[in-house]
Amino acid sequence: MKKSMDGLFHNPAQEPRPPRGPRLLITQLKHQHLDQVMAIERACFSSPWERRIFEAEVVFPQALCLAALALPQGLLVGYLIMWLVVDEAQIQNIAVHPAYRGQGVGKALLRQGLLEARLRGGTWASLEVRPSNLAARRLYASLGFAEMGRRPAYYQPEGEDALLLNADLAWLDGPGGENP
Ligand SMILES: CC(C)(COP(=O)(O)OP(=O)(O)OC[C@H]1O[C@@H](n2cnc3c(N)ncnc32)[C@H](O)[C@@H]1OP(=O)(O)O)[C@@H](O)C(=O)NCCC(=O)NCCS
């Protein structure tokens, strides 16, 4: 089977096409991707997840793990880890390779993740984000997330607060499911 047809979540009709940047395949994140994931994770976060956490996530039944592969080479340029808990989609991790940011990769990944969650019965989504992370906040706002609260000193050791963001997923049912 061709690698591009190997993903559980590949649906050519819904394959996101960012207006600029690489042509993407959003597919299931697998163990074979984890070397590339770890390189991006370490480049993105001051407290990166350890590899064993990703190893557990890719086989955890409640986790929805997506990879963004840049075509035609299939280079992994981003990933999303989401948990489906009853009707709630909890965004656990999302990151894009620094060289591929600002090109629609994060939005394509998150939109596809929210669509998959909706198809599995999700009605709302939640996440935490640093107030200082303006790129992530803009991404989340563009897909319907709004601030619902704040957890003081959530991120350690810096002691930065976490903003709590929620999104109602009903907008994905609208014509095209393009925008909230
Ligand atoms: C947050 C992150 C995933 C965004 O990925 P991305 O591929 O660069 O985002 P996109 O290109 O899809 O942009 C999505 C939206 O965010 C906006 N955006 C992206 N980067 C931005 C920046 N640096 N400043 C302001 N807005 C930005 C885009 O303009 C776009 O908004 P629009 O749809 O209204 O035009 C990426 O910056 C990243 O990996 N950051 C490090 C890891 C991280 O912080 N993860 C989130 C933890 S909560």
List the helices and strands and how they pair.
Elements: E1 23-28, H1 34-44, H2 51-57, E2 63-71, E3 75-85, E4 88-96, H3 105-119, E5 124-129, H4 134-142, E6 146-155, E7 160-168
Parallel strand pairs: 4-5
Antiparallel strand pairs: 1-2, 2-3, 3-4, 5-7, 6-7
Coenzyme A binds at residues 44, 94-96, 101-107, 129, 133-136, 138-139, 142.
Give start-end ranges of low-pLDDT stretches. Answer: 1-18
Radius of gyration (CA) equals 16 Å
The largest sheet has its strands arranged as 1-2-3-4-5-7-6
The secondary structure category is alpha+beta
The unique ligands bound to this protein are: coenzyme A
N- to C-terminal separation? 36 Å
Mean pLDDT, all residues: 90
Helix tally equals 4
Query: What is the third-level CATH name, the topology?
Result: Aminopeptidase
Please tell me the CATH architecture by its name: 3-Layer(aba) Sandwich
Proportion of beta-strand residues: 25-35%
Number of domains: 1
The biggest sheet, with number of strands, parallel, antiparallel or mixed sense and barrel status, is: 7 strands, mixed
Helix and strand sequence: EHHEEEHEHEE
Q: Quick one: overall form? A: globular
User: Would you identify the CATH H-level superfamily?
Assistant: Gcn5-related N-acetyltransferase (GNAT)
Kindly state the number of beta strands: 7
